[in-house]
Design a protein that fits this description.
By secondary structure, the chain is mainly beta. The protein has no helices and eleven strands. The strands form two sheets. Strands 2, 4, 5, 6, 9, 10 and 11 form a seven-stranded mixed beta sheet that branches. Strands 1-3-8-7 form a four-stranded antiparallel beta sheet, with no helix packed on it.
Length: about 120
């Protein structure tokens, strides 16, 4: 089992920045893929960004965040970060950390979520 704990959410004005963090514990040594998903009110949960260990490290992004968000992992592979720049009101959502022992989206393990609100 893997436990995931997110931090870093909050309220920010449009155009602002936030950095989300997610720390994994438990069987975290064998995590292969880590990702961020988000869910806005009345909408389905969607993939924001993902990072796997394949090919030396492959990342993927939703079209809506390309060029604004950056996903990264620590060297130990048991933490993932999401740097969010030029935030827009439509980025408002609960952001969830996700992980798996394989390259799989979505993975098996979920965090509890952290709220990001972009508002003037």
């Amino acid at each position: 089992q893997v436990q995931l704990v997110e931090s870093g959410g909050g309220v920010v004005q449009p155009g602002g920045s936030l950095r989300l963090s997610c720390a994994a514990s438990g069987s975290a040594f064998s995590i292969y893929t880590m990702a961020w998903y988000r869910q806005a009110p009345g909408k389905q949960r969607e993939l924001v960004a993902g990072a796997s260990n394949s090919g030396g490290g492959i990342t993927k992004y939703a079209d809506s965040v390309k060029g604004r968000f950056t996903i990264s992992r620590n060297n130990a592979g048991n933490a993932v970060y999401l740097e969010m720049n030029n935030l827009k009101t439509e980025d408002t959502a609960v952001y969830y950390c996700n992980a798996d022992h394989w390259e799989r989206y979505p993975g098996e393990f979920w965090g509890q979520g952290t709220q990001v609100t972009v508002s003037s």
